[in-house]
Structures are given as C-alpha cells and as structure tokens.
Amino acid sequence: MTSAAVNRAAELGAPLVAGRDPWAGVPSATARTIMEAGVKAFGARGFHGTNLKGIIAGTGLSTAALYVHFSSKEDLLFQISKRGYVETVEIVEAATAIKDPVESLRVLAYAFTRWQAEQHAAARVVFYESEALTAEHAEELAELRYGGELKIRAMIEQGVDDGVFLPGEVRGISAALLSLSIDVARWYGPRAPYTPDELGRLYSVLACRMLGVRD
Question: Is the pTM of this model over 0.90?
Fold first, then answer.
C-alpha cells in the first residue's frame, strides 16, 4: 500500500478518535472519579478480583458514595462498558459511511485500532471483562455491537461486489477485522513499540491485505 493511501486513512481517521473524552457527559465529577477508579481497579485485578473498597481506594470517597451513582459493582462495569461500546460504534458508523469501500476499510482499521491503543486501559475492561455482566446488560451491549458489525459487513459486501475485495465469508472476515484491533487493548501500554497513530497506520495496511487490496 502506498504511503499516500495510509496518510489519507490517517487524515480521515484521526478526527474520529483524537480528543475523545470517554467520560464526557457523566453527570457529576464524583461519578467520573468512580468510573475512572473502576477502570483502574478492574484492569489491574479483574472484575471478580475487585471489591468496592478496592475501587474507591485513593479516591477519598466512601462505598456509600459509589451506591449514590451506581446500583452495584456490576452496574459500574456496565456503565463503563456501555460508554466504550457507544464510542466504538460511533467510529464504525463514521468510517463505514465513506462511500469508497477501500477507503472506508482503511479509515475503519486506522481509527478503531488507534482508539484501542489510546484508550487501552478502558478498552481492556470493556472488551475483556464482559462475561461478568448480567444477561440483560450483556444483551444490550450485544445489540450495540451487532449494529456496528452489520455496517462493517455491508461495507465488505460492497467491496466484493465492486471487485476490490476478495470474496469470502463476510461474517467471519468482519469478526476477524474487529478482533485484530480489539486485541491491541490486551497488550498495549506505555512501553509499546508503536504510537497509537503508527499502530493505526499499520493495521490499515493489514486490513487491506486481509481483503486482498493491492495498490
């Protein structure tokens, strides 16, 4: 892939990610503090290894303050996870709205991967602690995810119809594209060998190779 194509993907994809505040719209500073503390605690010890005292440790808050804003530890995880799902679906919707399926794929891979790197602490909780959610909460997130996946599948199908993507099992390809980027949150950190922008550029190339795009 030419550097011009990668640069174009970064140019279009960066505004979809840069400057995002995962806690924008949280109703109070206290709730924000608790959600940030929840990400830190769940990320370090996992949902089942974290108790309420572990969440609020160092915040200056009491467990009673947590219950003012969240009905339970699971509700806190759900509210954190829902914000992550909403953000990633917004990125998917914006990228797949691009008419050219090849450019859409490049921008999607760039932006979705960059988000996973920049928000790796929250993303690790959002995508790797979901088994702890209640069936009702898990279903709500699954509906959000499914809406985004449908848009990715439609983009891939359009590319296949246009002859710019290799034909294949669209559902599996869509899942593979998402999994490739989601895995970034599992290993990314301050010592990672790539910046979020560099990783987004690399994954835009890998996504195109997966679908047989050649310059």
Answer: yes
